[in-house]
Amino acid sequence: MQHPKIKFTCTLRKATLDDSEVLKSLWHKLDVSLPETPFIANMDYRQEFHEALAEQIESNKATLTLVAAVNELIVGCVCGYVYEKPEAINTPVGLIHNLWVEPEYRRKGVATQLVQSIEADLINSGAKSFQVAWRHTDDARRFWQKMGFIAYEAVSAKTVNN
């Protein structure tokens, strides 16, 4: 049974300091939703990372954070920044990370709008190419491929059993 598309207006905007608690909650949901790996299991580190990211919201100097809101309710977010990558052909590179859309708003174009908007902002900041990493799930792979990204390497992990 196919579910009917829900019509709603989604507003994209730069995050403000007032959004920081909501964003930290969304980023935590992102972390716990991902498959476990030996390298990202340290939730204390992830919480510190989220705190640092939230502190940058006010200045938007190091990382740009965009939110998607429906009737003032933040339902999604994405972050990105531009950096020099000497080994890349098309540098500077816009790195996109921490994309999250609340489950009830998925498959309605919110993530696509967030990524297209942050790409435009990163291009305005000098990006000549983009890079994103995602956990190995079919949904993530399909989404990023739909957005024009091509996987070019795989990173694997293994825990040493003592």
Question: Any overview of this molecule?
Answer:
This protein is α+β, with helices and mostly antiparallel strands and 162 residues long. It has one domain: Aminopeptidase (3-Layer(aba) Sandwich). Helices cover 31% and strands 22% of the residues. The chain contains 4 helices and 5 strands, in the order βααβββαβα. Strands 1-2-3-4-5 form a 5-stranded mixed sheet. β4, α3 and β5 form a beta-alpha-beta unit. α1 runs antiparallel to α2. The mean pLDDT is 81.
In a nutshell, what does this entry contain?
By secondary structure, the chain is an alpha+beta fold. The protein has helices at residues 20-33, 43-55, 110-124, 138-146, and strands spanning 11-14, 64-70, 73-83, 93-101, 129-132.
Write the layout of secondary structure elements.
Elements: E1 11-14, H1 20-33, H2 43-55, E2 64-70, E3 73-83, E4 93-101, H3 110-124, E5 129-132, H4 138-146
Parallel strand pairs: 4-5
Antiparallel strand pairs: 1-2, 2-3, 3-4
Helix pairs in contact: 1-2
Number of helices: 4
Q: Looking at the chains present, what oligomeric state does this protein adopt?
A: single chain
Strand-pairing-aware structural class = alpha+beta
CATH architecture type: 3-Layer(aba) Sandwich
Q: Sheet with the most strands? A: 5 strands, mixed
Q: For this structure, what is the CATH class?
A: Alpha Beta
Low-confidence stretches: none
% residues in beta strands: 15-25%
CATH superfamily: Gcn5-related N-acetyltransferase (GNAT)
Question: Descriptors for this entry?
Answer:
single chain; 162 residues; alpha+beta; Aminopeptidase; five-stranded mixed β-sheet; globular
